[in-house]
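1st attempt posting a full record on here, be nice pls
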Amino acid sequence: MFNRKKIKHLEEQLVQLQNKFEEEIYYTSKAANPLFGKRVYELKKLLNLYALDQKIKWFGTHGDGGYLLIDDLSNSDTLISGGIGDNDSFEREIAPYIKQIQMFDHTIKNYQVPASNSKFHQLKISEHNGLNEISIEKIATDNPSEDYLLKLDIEGDEWAVLDSLETVFLDKFRQIIVEFHYFNRGIQFDFPRIVRVLEKLMINHSPFSIHANNHGKYMYFGDQSFPQTLEIGFARNRSYELRLEKEVSRHTLQHQNAEEYEEFLLW
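the predicted structure (as tokens):
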């Protein structure tokens, strides 16, 4: 008999197989559909970068697991962190400066929290609430706070999760850090969702850091190119004075994810 947990595991395996199949069949094509190049061009126009006067600081290891944050952390902040894996250096370093950390990852067991103000839940962050999954709205409701921070590194689920959230709810978060996966697949098969999610985020927030994860691939679509994975930090507009930058470039404090590979240029 298959229980719910076993079915969920099989579903995740099927998604991984689908991703691999699509990558092998579609993304290696040397004759990319020109429409995809047009979509990449539209995506680049959408993703502008903004500067601010506050100090920006790196938290976490120098590579995967570390992220840039605006250095205004407060003991009234709650961090909702989705995706821990085998690296909690980001959460460990910011724990002393904030009220609490609520950590979520359904893929790991027997995890020891990094600090006394941290709590771990073996749950999947989802657009739904269920036996083994939880929505960000419920997490915030269960953990009232004066202000919130959000970090998502949930291996592609971020698109559905963010798509399900209302703009007024997203405004609760002063900073939002997201590692966006599978732009290659999304540009070809789910472009409306990519645009919808990014436009929704940028109603009340603006990107203060944009970085291509060089563990992924750099993809070519017609006469355009784009990274497979982007790490983007968003600042809430009403909390900061933001100035539009002339170009999108890597922040000077940004560490590349894989030292053994060349860093990807942006646009």
